[in-house]
Design brief:
This protein is 14% helix and 27% strand. With 277 residues, it is an alpha/beta fold.
Length: 277
């Protein structure tokens, strides 16, 4: 089992011989955002058996990045996405499946379980059609939770269920986070609720608005390390793997740990492999 973080919310999860790609974003620039850290993901980042799209915002559902996927790649998108994002209909080479919370999709030896996310599901800046924002639990030899974008919500732990690894957003792409987001502190609170063995912080430190380098830069640079610090206080049984862009880790996934305290929070180094910067 291996996880690679390519930047923002884009990760590759390899489990049970299946490559799972989350929210692919391979652009150097997106509207007013510019990639500030990490080289663009290498070609192998676009190789996947299944791609999970969490919601319709363009930094998560990026049609040009989806167009780079190999023919016949399975792509799971929120219910209503094909109506709300006409560009998806031109992706004739991929196999698009609309899903909603409660759905289960089998991919080889994996089962992808669709769960709720509390986040704005519209296609912005304009988009009257609403689609649900989603999280996903990838169940194979291990159980990996990809939260997409979400706020904490009642019943989160019960719906997500026991997991080995949590991929949690800890920041954003601007100096302020609106409703429906986790910052470093709320993500640490989520760890305390979910109690996985390991966590990887994502959705920070990659894209930043043009011309805003001097505006509250700590909001861009520090969410990852702040998450490590707060996780050590609030979820001391969870090992946090703070990855660089393009870096991979093989976290410990020997089943769900029901009682915390077996491993300290901090930068995990077990079986991590360096990648392209």
């Amino acid at each position: 089992m291996e996880i690679t973080w390519w930047g923002h919310a884009t990760c590759t999860v390899q489990d049970s011989g299946v490559r799972v790609l989350t929210d692919p974003l391979f652009a150097r620039r997106l509207a007013h955002l510019r990639r500030r850290r990490g080289a663009l993901p290498e070609a192998r980042a676009a190789v996947a058996d299944v791609t999970l799209v969490s919601h319709l915002h363009a930094d998560h559902l990026h049609v040009p990045s989806l167009a780079r996927l190999a023919p016949d790649t399975r792509v799971l998108v929120p219910r209503g996405a094909l109506r709300a994002v006409p560009g998806l209909r031109r992706l004739g080479r991929t196999r698009l499946t609309e899903v909603a919370p409660g759905d289960r999709v089998r991919i080889g030896d994996l089962v992808v379980r669709v769960v709720t996310a509390h986040h704005d599901g519209r296609r912005l800046p304009v988009g009257p059609q609403r689609s649900p924002a989603l999280g996903y639990v990838v169940e194979g030899e291990s159980r990996t939770y990809f939260a997409g974008d979400t706020a904490l919500f009642d019943g989160m732990a019960e719906e997500v269920g026991p997991v080995d690894v949590a991929l949690l957003p800890v920041g954003g792409w601007g100096p302020y986070l609106g409703e429906g987001h986790l910052d470093a502190g709320r993500a640490a609170d989520a760890l305390a609720l979910l109690r996985p063995r390991s966590a990887v912080p994502v959705h920070y430190g990659t894209y930043w608005p043009i011309g805003m380098d001097a505006v509250r830069p700590h909001e861009f640079h520090t969410p990852g390390t702040e998450f490590v610090r707060l996780a050590a206080e609030r979820a001391p049984g969870v090992t946090v793997h703070l990855l660089d862009h393009g870096e991979s880790v093989r976290p410990q996934v020997a089943g769900y740990r029901s009682s915390p305290g077996d491993a300290p929070a901090g930068r995990g180094d077990d079986d991590r492999e360096g990648g392209t910067r």
